[in-house]
Amino acid sequence: MSPASATLPAAMTVREVGLRDGLQSIATLVPTAHKCEWIAAAVAAGLREIEVGSFVPPKLLPQLADTAEVLAYAKSIPGLLASVLVPNLRGAEQALSCEADLILVPLSASHAHSLANVRKTPEDMVLEVGRMRAARDSARSAALIEVTISTAFGCTMQGEVKASDVLRLVQTVLDAGADRVGLADTVGYANPAQVSRLFEQTLKVAGSALCCGHFHDTRGLALANVLAAMALGIHRFDASLAGIGGCPFAPAASGNVATEDLTFMLEAMGHSTGIHLQALLALRERVVGWMPNEVTHGSIWRAGVPKTLSTANL
Predict the structure, then answer these.
(1) DSSP string of 183-251?
(2) pLDDT of 282 over the 80 cut
(3) Domains, the chain, with CATH or none
(4) Is 247 a catalytic residue?
């Protein structure tokens, strides 16, 4: 299917993950007040889904030690879907007690990456998802559980990750009680042809429960990979302001696709994101100012909107 096909989704959702995936990958400790400013400005710019942090031990990720406070602020904003990442049942219980709207669970398709990242095998993580679902149901919470299959396109530690392993994990986590799943190119190995094949195969297993693509721009293919997934009807994508982020097990990796670049591409193609690009770029400038010693990424902030396009909706 051609990316120019009329069957592409008209409305797209960009989920900002810089406050978690981005900040956990840099040394700078951004104050809680600045994080709350980030959320407020992002919502004012039109973003409606934000991953605000992660419930992990503060000694492991001091950058995210204030997740409960940041989540409480996010919950005070009407219309915002606030998500948090959790690596285990304990984290899920914290997310439930803080009334997160969405619980994101990383499950690596790479055995080696899973052990390094969460100290559990992929099969152990499937069992953990089942415990999270039981805890969610026991609490009578409306929170959704979304499992992201990370290293779905390859792993710096293991190398090749078989599509059959990804598909098996998708089926087992859905059977264990996950509400929906996403596929992540955690280390930036994917190419558009590979994305098209794996998303198409996964749709046959998960159907509408496959809801998100997460692409890193390590090798400059994140936007092309987004287009490949869009051609199959995927309409939600993770992105990080200023392209911050990365993976500790991917040497020299850059971060996620930049939120501002993804927004520009989607809006320029005629897909509604509800995001005002100029406001987003103004926020980018503020956020970069809070971390002056960190490497940031992206293109549209430097080059600007082409004169051939109207800026009225950008």
Answers:
(1) EEETTS---HHHHHHHHHHHHHHHGGGEEEEEEB-TTS-HHHHHHHHHTTT--EEEEBGGG----TTST
(2) yes
(3) 13-303 (3.20.20.70)
(4) yes
